[in-house]
Amino acid sequence: MSSGNGRNVPRGGGHGPAGGSRGAGGRGRGGRPPKPVRDEARNAAYDLMRAVDERDAYANLLMPALLRERRLSGRDAGLATELAYGTLRGLGTYDEVIAACSDRAPEDVDPPLLDAVRLGVHQLLKTRVPPHAAVGTTVDLVRLRVGIGASKYANAVLRKVSTRSLEQWIPIVAPDQAEDPVGHLAVAHSHPRWIVDALRDAVGGDFDETAALLAADNERPKVTLVARPGRSSVAELLEAGADPARYSPYAAYLAEGDPGAILAVAESRAAVQDEASQLVALALTRVPLEGSDSRWLDLCAGPGGKAGLLDALATQRGEARLLAAELQYHRARLVWQTTRQAAVITADGTAPAWRPGVFDRVMLDAPCTGLGALRRRPEARWRRDPRSLPELGRIQRALLDSAIDAVRPGGVVAYVTCSPHLAETVAVVGDVLGRRDDVEVLDARDPLPEVEGLGEGPYARFWPHRHGTDAMFLALLRRR
Q1: Active-site residue flag, 101
Q2: Looking at the domain that runs over 35-166, which CATH code has it been given?
Q3: Which of the listed residues 272, 330, 378, 480 has the most CB atoms within 10 Å of its CB?
Q4: 276-479 belongs to which CATH class?
Q5: What does the pLDDT read at residue 30?
Q6: 234 and 249 in contact (C-beta within 8 Å)?
Q7: Using an 8 Å Cβ cutoff, are 148 and 33 in contact?
Q8: pTM of this prediction?
Q9: What letter does residue 74 receive in the DSSP assignment?
Q10: What is the average per-residue pLDDT within 371-379?
Q11: Catalytic residue of the set 101, 300, 368, 418
């Protein structure tokens, strides 16, 4: 993992200075330190942090398995999730605070110790855990998982951190806002600098809106469900404890609890799906067509969220059927498990296995940096690299050309990315349109009259700080 300053945390390193206090060095009978209490919620959060660092694990996939394995539920499960996700989101800020409270830079601290201290800093600066409990439980965690010597370092650093609030630390550890506004936002909101630059450009250069977007990235996202039409209903989800959604007619919000405990979700008649993901699929199906409307294609269907909704909508229309294509076999399996009537194949969308010009509607949810889903994938901001953009751009352009070739004259293509980065959105569409004369751009806002704030058009943009959804881009193109 890397921190907000782009620091790469190496394997190995020193423990930093020794420090003494009752929290870490208190003695029991015979001068021995008291045996640390094992806190299962904090241990689960710590194990997730270590798995992300050591194995590049995906937090959103590993956490449910950890909770089941440790038999954590209710408040304990909520605490473990908040500690792990919150720490991963705030890692850039926390490393700067740790650096200010230690005589060693974070990259010189042993990674297992550093992860435990980060968890303690998050509790001190962003939760309601009392300071003495945040320090004491973290010191116990370090003694149990790292060692007694390391616990002295943790105790010393955390006690210094506890002397100020997060709001008081930011002016101390972040660059001056007037002299380096991007650097200030990067530390204050715990995002790599290149991502701050990209998001600022995506919102038109407005620093206030950039700050609001970055802050929204650090908020815990609500769980949004989709009731696949013809198989479940919003009413069924509401009866199971969900709340009505703001935009999508098939969505509901789940304030708390395990979505898998809802019968419709367990039976795959409903699923967890961001509301923007639902709406871009709906927009594609709402564009009026002349002539046939029976052949639909999802060009990059894995892991199957949009395909699941498109499949249900196609089935409802009677004659329409979906072909879902996915390059990777294991992701194609997920699509097959998600859909019912769709034909699912493993295929390279840039070298299609179908004749050109045969589909009426084509969904292209292109592979991208995923900068629009940083709320849900807390470690992603530290993994993404701007050096991947040229290769992603090449793939995105090739796939968009393939999608346009696949659709018949009069048919429509939806180009979607879960990233607002200009290099992955308007630049891709502009380049492809610049060398083709058989495509017209539709106003992507028109099929979504229920949603305000989608931008000036012709493209539609969803935002966490405006809509409470992932940041998602939609272009609708009609083949001439």
Answers
A1: no
A2: 1.10.940.10
A3: 378
A4: alpha beta
A5: 52
A6: yes
A7: yes
A8: 0.90
A9: H
A10: 94
A11: 418
- Hey, what long-range contacts does 125-132 have (CB within 8 A, 24 or more apart)? 125/90, 125/94, 125/97, 125/161, 125/165, 125/166, 125/169, 126/86, 126/90, 126/166, 127/82, 127/83, 127/86, 131/162, 132/23
In degrees and rounded to multiples of 5, residue 80 shows phi and psi of -60, -45
In whole angstroms, what is the distance from residue 344 CA to residue 308 CA? 11
Please list the residues that pair with 227 across neighbouring strands.
270
| Tally of CB atoms within 10 A around 125 | 22
Closest by CA position to 9, among listed 101, 99, 83, 138? 99
Residue 20 predicted with pLDDT over 70: no
CA angle 46-47-50, nearest 5°?
90
Where residue 257 falls among pLDDT bands split at 50, 70, 90? confident
Tell me the pLDDT of the chain averaged across its residues.
92
**In the block, residue with structure tokens 């039976």:** 267
Asked if residue 296 lies in contact with residue 321, where contact means CB atoms within 8 angstroms, the answer is yes
Question: Cα separation of 291 and 352, whole Å?
Answer: 24
* Bridge partners, residue 461, by sequence: 473
Distances (CA, A) of 102 to 8, 27, 99, 147: 18, 24, 5, 18
Q: Which amino acid is at 401?
A: D
Per residue in 208-223, pLDDT (tens digit) is 999 999 999 999 999 9
Q: What is the average pLDDT across 232-236?
A: 98
